[in-house]
Amino acid sequence: MNASSPATAFRCFLVRQGDKYPSGAVEQQTVNDLPPGEVLVRVAFSSLNYKDAMAATGDRGVARKLPLAPGIDLAGEVVASTSSHFEPGDSVFATGYELGVTHWGGWSEYARVPADWLMKLPAGMSAKETMTFGTAGLTAAQCVLALVEHGVKPEDGDIVVTGATGGVGSYAIGFLHRLGYRVTAVSGKPEASGWLTELGASSLLGRQEMERDPKPPLLSARWAGAVDTVGGQTLVNILRETSLNGCVAACGMAGGGKLEMTVFPFILRGVTLAGVGTAYCSRARREQVWGLLAGDWKPNDIENGVKTVTLDTVFAEVEKMLQGQHQGRTLIDLRS
Question: Per the database record, which ranges form the Enoyl reductase (ER) domain (predicted)?
C-alpha cells in the first residue's frame, strides 16, 4: 500500500487525556490521523529531551494540545510533499518549533510537518547523527558560539558548564574542549566523573557547591564564561563569579525560572548574560550551526554516551530522566 494513503497504519507513542490525568502509551494510528502539514515524513529516528519526558507524562506546560505524540526532534525520509522545496526520497530532519508541544512530534513512525520546519540533512551527516545531536546539540553549539562571538578566548580562563551529564551540558563540554578551552563541569553525579573527564572536562564540581546562597552581590571572579543549563540560584552564583567582560550563555531552568540578584555583575564587571533558545531559532542560524556540527565540531566518537531504544522501551528512559538518573543522549529508533 502507498505510504501516503490515509489507510496506512503505523505505531506511535500517544499521550491522551484520561478520566483524571493524561497518560501515554504505544498505539496504532493511520496517516489520516496526522495533523496538517505540507510534508509527510517516514520517521527513522527521534530523541529524548527533558521537554519530551515532561510531554510523555502529560505535563500541560509542555503538551499543550492532546492527544499528542511527543518528540521535539525527528529525522527520516519524505514520503509525500505539496511543497516545492521537498520531494519524495529527500532525507530531512526537524528540531523544535511546535513539534511535540502542540503539533504531532517525532515519537511516531510517520509525521506530517510544515515545510518551514524541515531541513535537508547536512552533507556528511546521517539521519541518526542529526538526532544524536538533536535539539541538545543545537542548543549546546549555540551556547558555545555565543561565547566565541562575545570574544571569550581560551586564554581568558575557565569555562564552567552546569548540568554536565545532560545532553546539552555534555555536548558543550566536548565542543569547548575541541576549541581549546579549559572546562569545569558541574554535576550531581560523582559516578560520572570519569565520563566527563573523557569528554574533555579539566575539573569537576559538585552541584551543591553551585546551589549555595551566599549574601554578597559579587563573589571572587573565577569564570571567563559559562554554559548554564540549570538557571535559578546556580545561574545567580555563576554571574556573581564571572570575570570582567565575561559571558554566560543560559539555556535552561531546571533549577528555577527566577533570577533573584543585583545588577552588580552587569554594571561593575560588564558581564553579559546571553539567552539561548532553539525552538524558534532562525533558519540562517540553524544552517550556520548545523554546518559546524557536520564539519569542524563533529566529534569522531559522536555516539559516545548515546543509548538507542524503541517506542516500547522509551518510557523507562523517561522515568529515569524525570528522576535525575539519566545520562548522555537517548535516541528512539522508529524503523520498522
Answer: 24-332
Nine-digit cell at 324? Answer: 535525575
pLDDT tens digits, 100-146: 999 999 999 999 999 999 999 999 899 999 999 999 999 999 999 99
Residue type, 209: E
Could you tell me the pTM of the whole model? 0.91
- Reading the block at residue 134, the C-alpha cell is 538533536
Would you place residue 7 in the very low, low, confident or very high pLDDT band (cuts 50, 70, 90)?
A: low
Helix (H, G, I), strand (E, B) or coil at 196: helix
What's CA 63's distance to the chain center, in Å?
Answer: 17
Residues sharing a CB contact under 8 Å with residue 298, sequence separation 6 or more, in sequence order: 124, 125, 129
How many other C-beta atoms are found inside a 10 Å radius of the C-beta of residue 26? 15
pLDDT given for residue 1 in this prediction:
40
Domains and CATH numbers, the chain: 9-121+305-333 (3.90.180.10), 136-275 (3.40.50.720)
Model confidence pLDDT, tens digit, residues 267-306? 999 999 999 999 999 999 999 999 999 999 998 888 877 8
Listed residue (27, 96, 87) closest to 251, CA to CA = 96
Q: Is the dihedral of CA 66, 328, 301, 171 positive or negative?
A: positive
Q: What is the DSSP letter of 162?
A: S
Spell out the residues 6+ positions from residue 229 whose beta carbon is closer than 8 angstroms to its own. 161, 162, 163, 166, 168, 169, 251, 252, 254
Helix and strand totals (H; E) in the chain: 9, 15
